[in-house]
Structures are given as structure tokens and as C-alpha cells.
Amino acid sequence: MKSYQQGWTLRRRVVALLGVVLVLLLGLAAAEAVVAAKNRQNIDAVLIKTGPLRVQAQELLSALLDQETAVRGYAVNGDRKDLAPYETGLERERATVDSMERLAAGYPDVLRELRVVEQQAERWRANVAEPVITTTERSGPAAGQALITDQTRQQFDGIRSAVNQLQAEILVVRQQTADQVTRTGNVLVVLLIIAALVVAVAGAVMVLSLDRILIRPLAGLVGQVREVAAGDYEHHIAGAGPPEFRRLADDIDGMRQKIARDLAEVREARERIEWVNSQLQKQAEELTRSNRDLEQFAYVASHDLQEPLRKVASFCQLLQRRYAGQLDERADQYIAFAVDGAQRMQRLINDLLAFSRIGRLTTGFIEIDLNKVMGDVAGQTEAARQYADAELTWGELPVIRGEEPLLTNLLANLVSNSIKFRRPDVPPKVHVTARLVGDEWEISCQDNGIGIEPEFADKIFVIFQRLHAKDAYPGTGIGLAIVKKIVEYHGGRVWVDTGTGEGTAIRFTLPALPEDVAAANAAAEVGAADEAAAGAESTGDGTLTGDGTGDDAAGSGPIGRQPGGSERTDPADGTTGHGSTGGMKETVG
User: Fold this and answer.
1) Kind of pairing, strands 579-582 and 391-394?
2) What gap in Å lies between CA 480 and CA 383, rounded to an integer?
3) What pLDDT, in 10s, does the model give residues 499-539?
4) Other beta carbons less than 10 A from residue 344's beta carbon
5) Contact 125/68 with Cβ under 8 angstroms?
6) DSSP state of 577
7) Which of 83, 79, 161, 88 has the alpha carbon at shortest distance from 119?
8) Which SS3 state, helix, strand or coil, does residue 443 take?
9) 3-state class of 400 per DSSP?
10) What is the CA radius of gyration of the chain?
11) pLDDT over threshold 50, residue 577
12) Long-range contacts at 179-186 (CB < 8 A, ≥ 24 apart)
């Protein structure tokens, strides 16, 4: 770590300048706060006191005029209703005087003039208003009018003059307060101008200082960094200016040296990566060539190899039919071996082709009703079921997205395996069901056959994996491998349920449609609400309300959607809607 000459750092210089400016601005701010407070007091006096005082003085005069008018009207008509404005005006006068006294608490001249108005108003009521009212009540309107003379009118004019004098005094106070507002406002403007000058001078000083101690050294450092960025990684970077800049220049130079070392390593790594990429490119080309060879093999297997096998099988069968019994027993046995081998080779080739085409030749996913698929599977396996006297049933199955030929092949393989691996002297029974688990349909194919040992549960899905001799159970050992590949192609998984007590249960999952998941969640919420309602309605002796039946007895609920969008539900009588086939009969219930 280099040692630098001690001096004022950039931070210290900026802090010192900002400190001086801050002290000046705080002093100006304190003075402005005092003046602003005084100015606000004066403005409040104008707006809250003197202004309302003028309005209330006018209100006071209006109340007195209402009293004088009411007295005149009563003296003319003698109707007691004419005195209502007099009483109202008297109440208004008192309320207005109380309000003006509160507002004029700091203005003794205004209070004095207000007292003069009140005194003259009291004298007018005592000398004029009350006598006129009393005389009119006792002697009638004529006597009351006789009391209203020019002298009484002049007495009320004195009240008017007193109110005008009050208004004039309020105007004088208001003008004095407004002059104070003007003076304090001017002082505020002067203080603000001084603050602006302080800020301007401080800004100018800071700009000049920053140009000398910040911008110029920084521009020199930037120029050196750009030289390095342009490719001159051996250029040494030297700093100038405050100690921070010199330390920064040394740090950047250290970073330059590290970058130079890393670049050398990167060049070496790039060369290695280019070599690896070339090898990967060669492997990709080899893989592409291998895929083309596989495609060609599939074509040859599906066309060229089938023709010789068909000829071998055909001619061997002709030999078997034409010369059966004419040769010795061993010759007949050899011919039978040849026919069986050719046929098994054809089946093996066809199964391998079917296995290789899964996911490669696609028609696109559509919504498929598995109930219809099971109907097609029942038709395909009818001959095998009749031969084994087997029964095929299925519960209500959902609608899923997939490829119908592949799903038909999937279920046909499972049903055929269940029929094939049956127990002697026990009619096979195969049952296919579905249930929604989370966002997937779990579909089960359950039979009553020979079953599978737990240790072989994973091996049966391996291609060409057989657990029995071909003489005991015919086949190529590819069927369940095809099942697994179809399920995984549709985004599911397949396994053997080893917990069944009898036979074999192969389960696989398929993604459910969002509509089915939403419907199942809604049905679960409704069911929970119904259970809560049933618990609330049950009586204390343990009996159920209604006929004693509930939703659990029916056991029905949404299973899946038809392709048109409607939902399927189990029949209301408690039976499960399903298709069944068995022996020589075929029924759909």
C-alpha cells in the first residue's frame, strides 16, 4: 500500500465548504422563520380579525335596522307579529356584539367605539322602542305613531353615525395591520434574496473548486482508462489530484494488471473451447448421420425385411400343409420351428417399429374421451376375450389431451396383458378406473391374473424383458415398454401397484384438463360446506335430518368433461356408469 502526502482530501474540502454555507443558510432560515411567524400573525389579524370585524359591524347595523323597522311596523298596524323582527334583531345584536368583543380583544379603540354603539342602542330602546311598544299595546296604533317624531328618528340616526364611526376605526386597524404585513413581506423577500446570493456564491465556488480538484484529475484518469480499454493493457495508469484519486488510480492499475492476466487465460481457454466445439460438431454430425441410418433401418425393417419373412413364413406354411405326415416326425417338427420363428420375427419387427415411432410420428394432441377409447379397445380385444371367456369393465373415464391412436394402443396393451397372464381355470376379469389426484388423472388397470412379484415391478417395463418362457406366455416383451413410452410421451408416469391382494394393478397418470381440476376443487368446497351444514342440522340424539341419506351414500360427483364441454356424473341410483364386456356378450351399462 503506497503512502500519500497528507493534505485536505476532497471530502474534507467539500464538507468545509458545505459547512460554511450551511451555517449561513441556517442563520438566514432562523431569521426568515421569525419574520414569517410575525408576517403570519399579521395576515391572520387581517383575515381572521379585522376582516370579520367589518362584516360583523355591518351585521350589527342590519340587526339595529331590523329593530327600528319592526317598531315602526308595529306602531302602524298594532299587530304583535310585526314585533318578531324586533326580537330577532335584538338576539342578533347581542350575538354579534359578543363575537366582535372576542375579535377586537387586542384593539382597544375598536372596543371603545363598539361600547358607544351599544350605549346609543340601549338609549334608543329605552327612550323610543319600549315606550312605542307599550303605548301601542295599551292605547292603539294611533297613540304609538304619535310617539314617533323627528327627534326619535334623529336619535336612531345617531346610532347609524356610531356604527359608521366603528367601521372607520376597524378600517384604520385593518390598514395598520396590512402595512405591517407589507413590511414583514419585504423583509422576507430581502432575506430570500440574501439566501439566494449565498447559494449562488457557494455554487460558483464549488464549481470552480470541483473543476480544479475533481474534473481535471478525473478527465486525465478517464483518458488513461480509455487507452487501456482500447487494447493497450500494458499502459500504466498514474493518478493526480486529491489522495482519493491517486488511490483510485492505483486500484484501477491493479485491476488492469489482473485483467491482463485473465485475458491471457481467456485466450488459452478460448482455444480449448474452440477445439471442444469442433469435436462437438463432429459428434453432432455423427449423431445426425446415425439418426439417418436409423431412419433408413426403420424403412428397411418395415419394407425390405418384411418381404423375405413373409416368403419364408408362407413357404414354410405351404410345406407344413402339403407335406404334413409325409415326412418323418422330426421334419414336421423342423418345419413347425421355421414357421414359428418367422412369425415371431415378424411380430418382433412390427413391435420394434411401433416402439420407435412413438413420439416421432405425431398427429398433435386433441381432447379425447377415454370412454370412447375403451370402446375401441373392447372391439380390438374381442377375439382374445371370447377365447379366454374374459370380462372387461371400466368406470367413468375422463377427457384428456393426447393422441388417440397411442392411447388406444396403451390401453389395448394393458388389457391384452391382463387377459394373457391369467390364472388357469379362472375366467379373467379386467377393470379400468380413473380418479383425479391433484392436477393428474390416475388411471388403473386391475386384473385377477397371476400377479407380479415386487422385485420384478420395475423390470417389466424394460424392452425385451420377459419374466416367463415364450412357451408359457407368448409375446415379444415389448408391450409394457411401449406402454411406458406412450405414458411418458403424454407427460405421465407408470408403475405397478404391489399392494394389491390379488392379480396385478398397473397404474399410470395423465395430465388433467384445467377445467376438470377447477370443477373438482369446487366440488370439494361444496362437499365441505354440505358436511358442515349436515353437522349443524344433526339433532342431539345422533339422528340425521331428512331421510337419513347424504352425499356420501350417493357417491356421485364430477368425473370429467365430455368433448363438448359438459360434465359427466355418476347415475343418481348409486351405480357407477361403466362399460362391460365378457364371454360371448357385450353390454354397456
Assistant:
1) antiparallel
2) 21
3) 777 888 889 999 999 888 888 888 888 878 777 777 766 54
4) 16
5) no
6) P
7) 161
8) strand
9) strand
10) 55
11) no
12) 180/38, 180/42, 181/39, 181/42, 181/43, 181/46, 184/35, 184/36, 184/38, 184/39, 184/42, 185/39
Whether the CB-CB separation of 35 and 191 falls below 8 Å is answered with: yes
Say which amino acid occupies 206: M
Identify the helix (H) or strand (E) that includes residue 442.
strand 440-447
Q: How far apart are CA 382 and CA 380, in angstroms?
A: 6
* Per-residue CA distances from 313 to 131, 307, 337, 475 (Å): 148, 10, 11, 18
What lies within 8 Å, CB to CB, of 565 at 6+ separation is 515
Q: Which grid cell sits at 227?
A: 487507452
> What distance in Å separates the CA atoms of residue 110 and residue 108, rounded to the nearest whole number?
5
Alpha-carbon distance 330 to 564, whole Å? Answer: 63
Q: How far apart are CA 133 and CA 147, in angstroms?
A: 10
* Sign of the alpha-carbon torsion through 452, 455, 457, 462: negative
Q: Is 547 helix (H, G, I), strand (E, B) or coil?
A: coil
Q: d(Cα 267, Cα 512) in Å, to the nearest integer? A: 52
The 10s digit of each residue's pLDDT in 163-221 is 888 888 888 888 878 888 788 888 888 888 888 888 888 788 878 877 777 777 777 77
pTM of the model: 0.42
Q: How far apart are the first and last CA of the chain?
A: 92
Q: Cell triple for residue 540? A: 342431539
Torsion sign, CA atoms 224, 225, 226, 231: positive
Per the rule left: phi > 0, alpha: psi between -120 and 50, beta: everything else, 503 is left
Does residue 334 contact residue 464 with C-beta atoms inside 8 Å? no
Q: How many CA within 13 A on the CB side of residue 525? A: 5
- Residue 390: what are its φ and ψ, rounded to 5°? -90, 155
User: Rounded to an integer, what distance in angstroms lies between the CA atom of residue 240 and that of residue 44?
Assistant: 59
Name the grid cell of 450: 397371476
CB 447 within 8 A of CB 430: yes
